[in-house]
Amino acid sequence: MPYHWRQHHGTFAAAFIIARHISLDLHDAEAPRCAVEGWDEPVFYKGQICGHVRRYSDTLLLARLKVLDPETYRERWEGPLAGPAGGPVQAAAAQGDLSRLSDEQLKL
């Protein structure tokens, strides 16, 4: 129903956009707190709270680091690949032919 209202009622569409920006601002303010300061999560024993454990959101921290420094925290590697001692990657291992690899290489 809200999608219909957004398409056919300009006032609702404008209010929806404002509400979305407010929500994003609140989430943006909360993310660093959850990532760095954390929160206390209750620990239960036999149905009763017996203590608390401090939890942190590594996922939120990493997401913020990716936004703040994408070159360092990017998802992909675009650098050169190299095999042992900086040489080429061995085609045998890349193609699944493990018979040419030494016992030491197979342990890796």
Tell me what you see in this structure:
- The protein has 108 residues and is of the alpha+beta class.
- α1 packs across α2.
- The chain is built from five helices and two strands, in the order ααββααα.
- Helix content is 51%, strand content 14%.
- A two-stranded antiparallel ribbon has the order 1-2.
What's the SSE blueprint?
Layout (H helix, E strand, L loop, with lengths): L1 H7 L1 H28 L1 E7 L2 E8 L2 H11 L22 H4 L8 H5 L1
Antiparallel strand pairs: 1-2
Which sequence of strands runs across the widest sheet?
Answer: 1-2
**pLDDT < 50 stretches:** none
Mean pLDDT across all amino acids: 82
Share of helix among residues?
40-55%
What labels would you give this structure?
108 residues; alpha+beta; two-stranded antiparallel sheet; 5 helices
Short summary:
The protein is α+β, with helices and mostly antiparallel strands and 108 residues long. Helices cover 51% and strands 14% of the residues.
